[in-house]
Write a structure and sequence with these properties.
This protein has seven helices and seven strands. The protein is of the alpha/beta class. It has a single domain, classed as LmbE-like (Rossmann fold). Helix 2 packs antiparallel against helix 5 and helix 3 packs across helix 4. The chain binds zinc ion.
Amino acid sequence: MNYRRVLVFGAHPDDEIAMAGAIAKFAMRKVNVTIVTFTDGCEGYPKPEMKDTIVAVRRKESSASDRVLGVSSHVHLEIPDMALINNKENVLRCVHAIRKVRPDAIFTHGPDERHRDHIAAHAISVEASWQAGEPVAAELGAPWRTPHLYFYGAVEGDKPHVCFDVSETEHKRLLAMAKHVSQHFLWGRSKENFEEEAKWIKRSKGKFIEHFYLSDGFCLNDFPPR
Ligand SMILES: [Zn+2]
């Protein structure tokens, strides 16, 4: 995990929380972290009266969460929630993002997802990781082959390839979750619950690990020498 630049794909405005400890640890080590969020999260409202404001609310919550984790930049593709499809336009938007960031590693959803947007985000980002390195669509930037492609979850029946110690930043995952107030009904906890737990984790000095799976065809030996 000795990277300079990483790119994280997520279907919805809070999906990167799955690897929030790693993101915060990268930021602490001055690694440039870019997040690409496909959808606007417009269906993530618990009460009908929130329908008209939920997109703006989630954008604000996402920015607050980014500040907690130390995210360098965040691209919102603003595709409507539950309407993400694997088409040419979306693959090319990701190719453009990859060639612009030129990451050492890409992190995305795994192959065994259930949500339609997660399934599409997995397929689009995996294909774009490959297409970005090919001599195609030249107006989107110079080809860039990303050495490592990881899944941050949803890989059934496989052991993780990397167990990343996030003990020093686990509390930041809780503090980032505290910022996604509109999603607290889903998680069954309040802002105060998250903040309390963050304090407790920081005091406890416990060990926390995040698991990552290398995509087929990628190998840790692929990392180029600096
Ligand atoms: Zn999601």
